[in-house]
Design a protein that fits this description.
The protein has 4 helices and 12 strands, in the order ααβββββαβαββββββ. It has one domain (about 35-170): Pnp Oxidase, Chain A (Roll), CATH 2.30.110.10. The protein has about 180 residues and is an alpha+beta fold. The strands form 3 sheets. It has a 7-stranded antiparallel β-sheet. The chain has a 3-stranded antiparallel β-sheet with strand order 1-11-12, with no helix packed on it. A two-stranded antiparallel sheet has the order 7-8. The structure holds flavin mononucleotide. GO terms for molecular function: FMN binding; riboflavin reductase (NADPH) activity.
């Protein structure tokens, strides 16, 4: 019985690239993910010593309206992991179309990622970057295992929308949005 179910499923999806999680080519997986266009954010928090921490992320997404929840995922190998696990608040800074240099700076490992970066403290005390498209300040709500990443869910405490056009990420490159 089990064999016929497998055969029927295989016949129903002939054009799908078959691949169990173990056999799926990493390159192919990344390429397919890259075909999904996202914005680019810098997630910021504070280290144990009060030092600003931040990294470039495109895994940001909305989760719930009531309560207002968002998520993003953080690589387990990231040096920033301890800070995001310890501090109760973080900010999602949605980059504007002219902030490609910030995208690069916060995606490059460094002990001083905030060098030459203009920012204030938000109402929750975490760094909020200047001249972004918008930002959301969040309280850590939940964390879940996600393979080689950890999924961070935040409850949104405050938002600020500057209305600037966003930076866009598609197939490994940052781009500007063009309206049809
Ligand atoms: C466009 C873009 C999107 C990224 N998205 C993520 C992400 O969702 N999660 C993540 O952990 N790293 C992501 N990265 C990689 C981190 O920004 C990069 O590894 C950074 O150095 C991590 O900071 P850290 O080394 O200070 O922890 C992304 C990089 C770029 C350029």
């Amino acid at each position: 019985m089990q064999r016929s179910i497998e055969a029927a499923e295989g016949a129903a999806m002939p054009s799908v690239q078959q691949g169990s999680p173990r056999t799926l080519e990493a390159r192919q997986f990344r390429d397919v993910l890259g075909s999904f266009t996202t914005g680019v954010v810098v997630v910021t928090t504070l280290g144990e010593d009060g030092r600003p921490i931040g990294l470039t992320v495109n895994s940001f997404n909305s989760v719930s309206l009531d309560p207002p929840l968002i998520l993003w995922s953080l690589a387990l190998k990231s040096p920033s992991l301890a800070a995001f696990r310890q501090h109760a608040y973080f900010a999602i800074n949605i980059l504007a179309e002219d902030q490609e240099p910030l995208c690069r700076q916060f995606a490059t490992p460094s002990s001083d990622k905030f060098a030459n970066i203009r920012f204030d403290r938000g109402v929750t005390g975490v760094p909020v970057l200047h001249a972004t498209a918008a930002y959301l300040e969040c309280r850590a709500f939940a964390r879940y295992p996600g393979g080689d990443h950890e999924i961070h869910v935040g409850e949104v405490m405050a938002v600020h929308d500057h209305g600037a056009a966003p930076l866009v990420f598609h197939r490994g490159s940052v781009r500007r949005l063009i309206q049809h």
